[in-house]
Structure formats: C-alpha cells, structure tokens
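For the sake of transparency, this paper describes our internal protein records without simplification. The tokens are whole numbers drawn from a learned vocabulary of local backbone shapes. One such record is reproduced below, unchanged from the form in which we store it.

. . .
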Amino acid sequence: MGFAQQPVQTSVDSTKIKIGSQFNLTLKVKGTKQTRVAFPESKSFGQLEVLESYPVDTIKKDATYEFIKKYGLTQFDSGRYVIPRIPVLIGNKQFLSDSAVIEVNNVVVDTLKQKMYDIKPIVEVKDPSSDFWWYLLAFAVLGGLGYLGYWLYKKYKNRPKEEVIVYASPIEKATSLLQNLEKKSLLEQGDVKSYYSEMTDITRTYIEETVHVPAMESTTDELLVAMKQASMKKKMGIRQETMEVFEKILKNADLVKFAKSKPMDFEISEDRKNIEKIIFTIDKALPKEIEEDETDSDYERQQEELKRKKIKKRNTIIGFVSGFVIFFVIGTVFFNGMNLFGSSTEELHEQDWITSEYGNPGVIISTPNVLKRIDAEKEVPKAVMAMIKEMQIFESGGYFDDYYIVVSTAKYKKETKVDLDKALEGGLQAMEVKGAQDIIVKTEDFNTGEGLSGRKAYGTMNWIDKITKKSRKAYYEFVIFSQDGGLQQVFTMYEEGDEFGSKITARILESVELRKAAQ
C-alpha cells in the first residue's frame, strides 16, 4: 500500500496481519550521491514491535539515488494499531513519514478441522538430586574403561613389535641398502632421478655416521671440503683420485636431480660401481681406534635410540586414538540420554507443539519444535540462486535423526510459471546428492483447507547410516505449492514403519496454511 508523494515515501506490504505475523514497513528517500539520509533505529514504533531493522539499500536511477530503509514489525495482541509518523533526517532537515493503520486479527481455530486433545495429567517434577547417581555411574564407567585400557596396555606392550632392522656396522648398512636399491628396478622403470637420489643419500648417511661431518645437509662443494678436512685431521690418507671420482658422481647426481639430465647407461653403471668402491675405501681408511671404540658404539646407540623412538611414537598414536574413540562414544551417549539419534518420535508427538509462520510467501504450520533458519546459499546451487530474489529455508532434526522436517519458500526475480512435477523431481534429485538411494516416488494432488492446491510426492528411500554404515529405510512426504512469483515447500521424513512418525506427518500437513504471495 503506497502513500502520497513527499520527501519520505511510506509503504507497508500488508494492512491486516494475524497475531505475531511479520509485516514490512518501507521508507524511501530520493536524492543525489551527496545527499545524507539518517533513518531512526528503535525497538518499537508506537505499539508495534520492531523484529528486524534491515540495512539501507541504495538504488541508482539515472542521475538520482533512491535510499530505501525496511523494518519488520509485528504485534502480539489483536486490535487496530497506528504506525506513527517517523522522523527521517535528510541533510540538516527533519521530515516525517506518513502514518498507517494496521489491523491485527486473532487466529481462528476450526475445531472441526483441528483435533482437540485431552488435558494432560499432572506430571511429577523430577528430583534434581537424582542426576547425581547418573554422574556417578558415568564416572564409574569411565574409570572402568580407563583401567581396562591400562590393563590391555600392560598385557600387550611386551608383545613382539614390528621388526626394526639393526645393522652390525655402518658399512654393512650401506652395502645392504645399495643392494636393495638394485632390487627396486628404478632404472628399468626409467626413474633415474630417484635412483641417483637414493644412491647419494646412502653414501652421505654412511659418511655422516662414520666420518662425523654433516653430509646430509651439505651441498656437494661443502661436503667435498668437509671430507678433505676430515681426511687430513684423522690422517685417513684418501687419495686425490678417489676424491675426484666422488666429486664427479655427486655432480652427476645434481645434474640428474636439478637439471633433468640423463646419463648414458654405461655412465650410470660406472657411477654405481665407483660409489661402492668409495665407501669401502673410506671404511678402510678410518682410524682403527675410531672405528672400533667410537664409531661402532655410537652407531649402535643411534640404532637403539631410533628403535625406541619408533616404538614410543606408535604407542602414543595408538593411545591417543583409543582414548579419543572411548571419550567420543561415552560423551555422545551420555549427553544424548542414551539415544544416538535425538528425541524419539513418540516424545515429539506427545509434547506441546508450536504453530508459527515461516518464510515469504509465508507458510503457517504446526510442528513439535521451532524450525531453525539455515543459510540457503550454502544449500542451493549458485545457478538456481541467480534466478531467485529471496529464499528462506527452515528445518528441525537432521537426515540421521528419528524425524526430519524442512520448510522452504522462494520468490523469483521474474514472473515464472513453475512445473510442480519437475520441481518435485528436482527436490528428490537434491536428496540423491545428499546420499539418498533407491528412491520410490508416487505423486498426487494436495489441497489445503483454504483451497490452494499443490502437488505431493511420497514414498521410500534408503540412507547409509554414517555411524553403523548400514542402510536405513525412510518414508518421506514432499509437498510443493506455486503462486505468482512465489514457491512454498514442505518436506518430512522418518524411519519406515514408525507409527508416531506417520502421525506427526499427518498432523503437520493437516495444519498447513499458506500466505498468498505479495505482488
């Protein structure tokens, strides 16, 4: 409904609402890019409560700008209410919006359509102190599991562990690793780079363990200098020709690794033979006292330390994973009241229900729990969102709960004629993307008590339970309505054969009322 032209244009999208329903008040101001406009922020306008104050929207039209401010208002008592004139600051002057009258009506309950239920009996209040015994039981269970874990650790910790190869000496380790390198057939596979890398790493490791120079972290030039200095200091007597051959092999390896060079087959074979000769030459040149008294003992200590670290690391990982699994399972069961899938459908059916309106164009519906809003942009493909002006999704439960319901509404940017059968098909395809299998579909017309008609799909589908990895069969009902510029959907799902799930769905669909799309 629009009002007279003035500096502040005022409009409301509805002058009659039901108690608690939201309607929108819109204020528009025209100006230039330099115009400063300040809209008021308040929790109420007169006797109407402000549910939401939307950000100011700026629209450029030719040389002028339109500043749009929207408020979501409501009232929880029936009657006629006046939206007072609201002050808006434009530049340094204050202007007032037009006032409007809103009629708030009671929700009429048709006792012939809406079933009446007996008054529930008096329920005895549970003594809070009784929870102490549950906490005590939980601690006792955790303590028992902790003791069981400790007992299993003590029992199995001395079992034979994964065999760690311990070599008698560095020379034995180096020659053994060179033999294993040949067994990998890297050259036959054309992987020359890996062959040279492993060959030089074996040699560098041997030099580091025996000559005690940082061979693994040194460049080729740094390693050669360190080797010459160590040879002179320890009086090893390695000939210059041996060092030149060693330098040639290291530089060939660098070219292969960094310049993607590929030596001839005979060059590779010659480097392999020479590297083994160099290792034996260094081994013979080592001073006897170092080799026997220091080198071997240090090497053995290093091997034993390596073995202990591997065993400790593995035991730590096993302990962490076991503890995490135990506490996760116990915590999940304890905090969900021994029910991994939330409230049972019997509890949902018997508890007090809530009637509320969701989305735009609104869907008025009764549900066991309040539906929670979720982010539509994360659920709907971008290609679909590009055609939609406004979309809202509300849900309760989840795909692996005992009962699941989702309500969604959408308004298209352009006038769109929706094929309801194709829309139902698209919705079920979305279920398949989320993991549904073997979907059986039946369709029929669906009418509300107000005479609005839509389409309904119903049947069964299978889900793979993420916890048990077993297939669960679910029954679903999917209702969809299309109005000019708007779309409304209701989807319910529960485990097949669940008597209370069937009653919940029947009651939900019987309560559906639709708010007509605003033009």
